Amino acid sequence: MQSPTPILDLVFPRRCPICDKPVRPYGSLICEECAVVPQPVGDCTCFKCGKPVGEQEEYCADCSRKKHMYYRGAASFRYRSVSGSLYRFKYEGRREYADYYGREMALTFDRFTQEMGAAHVPDLLVPVPCSEQRDRKRGYNQAAVLAEKLAEIVRIPVDSSSLKRAKDTKAMRTMSATERQNNLKKAFHAYGNSVRLKSIMLIDDIYTTGATVDACALALLEAGAREVSFLTFAIGENGL
Ligand SMILES: [Zn+2]
Ligand SMILES: [Zn+2]
After folding, report:
1. pLDDT in tens, 112-132
2. Which residue of 15, 87, 110, 219 sits 20 to 30 Å from the alpha carbon of 119, by its own alpha carbon?
3. How many CA atoms lie less than 13 Å away from 218 in the CB half-sphere?
4. Is the pLDDT of residue 3 over 60?
5. Which residues place a Cβ less than 5 A from the ion ligand 2?
């Protein structure tokens, strides 16, 4: 039997994260026909960052060149297949998409933590902080919303206060990888005792070059974290 449609859903029908129209059928998080649009990262992924790689490859081109600060990471979908959805989530106030994102990230979380083993299951989920100025404009930090949704399902506490952005870094979408890294150096600080000796999983909407995750991981490790991994909803493929 289908559960009754909540009255609020009738007044403000939930929008589908892919087509942005009211979801069909009622009560779903994504339309049946839209559910095939997000492209999973697949079975062949980089052992370090979780980007899709070829069958014979252990690491992606980026991770074979670079030493990352984090232990390992995973993502649910290829960025190109969900870029429109993520844009509306970040810039057009579609906070409700987080219900779908969180559910998918929880499935990835289960796979990923099983693969890493019990010793690497995180004690805390830490969202990548957004600048306060940008948070205020949008009304929410998208990474914090995702961390809360994921936490409801996987039952691991969220710590949104220990990691902060130190200065207002410039919008980085147009920068090269090197420019991003320089811009991000010292951009994050971790405070307090709650991260000490903890295994931490950083949560964000997207992973591209890893510069942001590395800068956050460095700050957390300097504050005494035992290990830092990450989980994102989407991940760029090499060359993006
Ligand atoms: Zn749809
Ligand atoms: Zn990689």
Report:
1. 999 999 999 999 999 999 866
2. 219
3. 16
4. no
5. 46, 48-49, 51, 60, 63
Contacts of 173 (CB under 8 A, 6+ apart): none
Residues of the chain with CATH 3.40.50.2020: 38-235
Question: What is the distance in A from the centroid of ligand 1 to the CA of 162?
Answer: 37
Fold of 38-235: Rossmann fold (3.40.50)
- Residue 86: its H or E element: helix 79-91
Q: Categorize the per-residue pLDDT at 177 as very low, low, confident or very high, splitting at 50, 70 and 90.
A: confident
Instruction: Give the closest ligand to the alpha carbon of residue 58.
Output: 2
Environment class of 175 (CB within 10 Å of its CB; exposed 0-12, middle 13-18, buried 19+): middle
Tell me how far the alpha carbon of residue 171 lies from the centroid of ligand 2, in angstroms. 24
